[in-house]
Design goal:
The chain is of the alpha/beta class. The protein has helices spanning 31-37, 40-44, 70-85, 103-112, 145-148, 172-179, 188-194, 196-209, 242-253, 277-288, and strands at residues 6-10, 48-51, 93-97, 117-122, 162-165, 184-186, 214-220, 258-264.
Amino acid sequence: MRMRAIDIFEFPTNLGLTQQAENREPGVSRMPEWLHQHGLHERLQAEQVFRLEPPAYTMESDEGTGLLNVEAVGDYAVRQAQLMSRQLEKDSFKLVLGGDCSVLIGSALALKQKGKYGLFFLDGHTDYITPELSQTGGAAGLGDERLTDLEQCRPYIEPQHIFCVGNRQYDESYVEPVQESAVHVYDLAAIRSQGITAIIESFWAMINEQELDGFWIHLDVDVLNDTLMPAVDSRQEDGLSYEELAEILTPLVSHRLAAGMEVTILDPSLDGNGQYTVPLVKHLVEVLDHM
């Protein structure tokens, strides 16, 4: 029996992604409705559902940095944090449905305004790159203070309080920034060699040693094996199985200090008949039922 209520927050933004085809904006903005259509909200018996409409999508890039929609992403993140902050005092599990990974900015800002939190970041990419290294101008990276210092709250989460897990883009120039930081990095190869249990135990040790108020989970569905979840904007071979994902998520979501989790990057326009979404919903419900 689930011990905590679930509140769902729908943040259907695609502002942080570049177009995959001319005159067709990224379809991740339809993700919350798509998951609702496939039964996620009903099966989770969400206590409350909140929704925040994003600004209209554009391909506007910042002249200095090349970042997409930087002002709009920042403004949306502040409004997102304001909505979440009003609910963080409630002892419910917050499930954020993106949208692209830029929703993490608003989630992290809300948490910083409440206390000292950790982050378990599950993603097929580290997203830990500067605007200069980015080839897309996507917002989920590092550097520009219009995104990293909203409300004068930088850093939202201290690097040493972050576990970056599941990356399988091994290019040296890509992984160098995160490897040189204080972030704890466990790529896909490390998961397989060290084992999931050891990584989770290291995370608990960090939480306790740093005396954190709680932690947040970021789940980008492209951390899954590409054969299981190809409906994403940046595909790569290999990835986690659903069994591995459950082994990671189950102890995390059931921990008393878990504030919530966000799910990002599923693009319904790349899953026309829902064949990849149906098993995702099934496995998310099974994991969250362990709370």
